[in-house]
Amino acid sequence: MIEFDLLGLGGRIVSGLVLIPYFGWGIYTLRLRFRFHEDINPAIEAVTLLAVAVFYAVEIYLLRAYMGYHQVFYMFSVLGLVVSGAALYGPMGVSLLSQLLVDTIAPGERSKTLEPRFEPAEALERESDYEGAVREYMVIARIFPHEPTVHIRIGEAYMMLSKPKEAAPWFHRALKCLESPEKSLQVTNRLCEIYNRQLGRPEEVGRLLEAYLNKYPEAEYAASVRERLKRLEASV
Fold first, then answer.
1. Domain count, the chain
2. Distances in Å between the alpha carbon of 37 and those of 53, 98, 173, 211, 236?
3. Contact yes or no for 30/48 (Cβ under 8 A)
4. Tens-digit pLDDT profile for the chain (236 aa)?
5. Are 167 and 136 part of one and the same domain?
6. 197 phi and psi, to 5 degrees?
7. d(CA 215, CA 210)
């Protein structure tokens, strides 16, 4: 009897401990997605959802073993798991499913019918409804996560709302997706202006210029960027 109780206690401890990474990782991924607007690698999303499914199987088994004789508590515990899972990992499931659907419908290069359509957001911008434009662009960004034009437009819309702190991450995302030295320099200069004038973080300017040179060391504009970086370092 004592041995059974100890095993039961151990099971409860394990059941409680696994809730820590369950909630911790869920909150962290939600913060990435909705606070910093970061896309999560589909492979990580798939592994996460698989791990959540395994967690559910183990947790429900333990709940059945230790609370089966309290049917009401058992039902509410399972309901709590379902609700928390929908809140924490539902957006991840929707994101992965939408990505799979897009890849299935248009594998490889996008067709012309799957090009991003900016008209609704542009119409809102013409009416100076930049908050509405941001929401429209966000929808496009979820469908086309590697389209730098969308990221740039979101950044500019945030700048029109006088929100440089929210705009900067979107310009950074655009830089990750861009392959053109000329366009990358334009976005780099925009970011330098934001960090230097709006955010008061001039130290970021040097990092941005160094990052540009590391990515495009032989670009047509590399020499002028090096000179600018030298002047910046000399003034510090």
1. 3
2. 25, 17, 9, 22, 33
3. no
4. 444 443 455 556 666 777 888 888 988 888 777 665 666 777 888 899 999 998 888 888 877 777 656 777 778 888 888 899 888 898 888 878 877 776 666 555 444 446 788 999 999 999 999 999 999 999 898 888 889 999 999 999 999 999 999 999 999 999 999 999 999 999 999 999 999 999 999 889 999 999 999 999 998 989 999 999 999 888 86
5. yes
6. -100, -45
7. 9
182 shares a domain with 88: no
Query: 218, 197, 212: which is closest to 228 by C-alpha?
Result: 212
pTM reported for the whole predicted model: 0.62
Q: One-letter amino acid identity for 139?
A: V
Can you give the residue range of the structural domain that contains 236?
178-236
Q: Name the domain boundary from 156, 177, 198.
A: 177
What end-to-end distance do the CA atoms of the chain give, in Å? 73
Q: Which phi-psi region, left, alpha or beta, contains residue 162 (left: φ > 0; alpha: ψ -120 to 50)?
A: left
CA–CA dist 81, 83 (Å, integer): 6
Which of 100, 85, 88 is CA-nearest to residue 29?
88
Domain boundary among 132, 153, 177: 177
Contacts of 22 (CB under 8 A, 6+ apart): 52, 55, 84, 88
Q: Does residue 90 lie in a domain region?
A: yes
Query: How far apart are the C-alpha atoms of 227 and 150, rounded to whole Å?
Result: 31
Report DSSP state, residue 110: P
Contacts of 18 (CB under 8 A, 6+ apart): 55, 58, 59
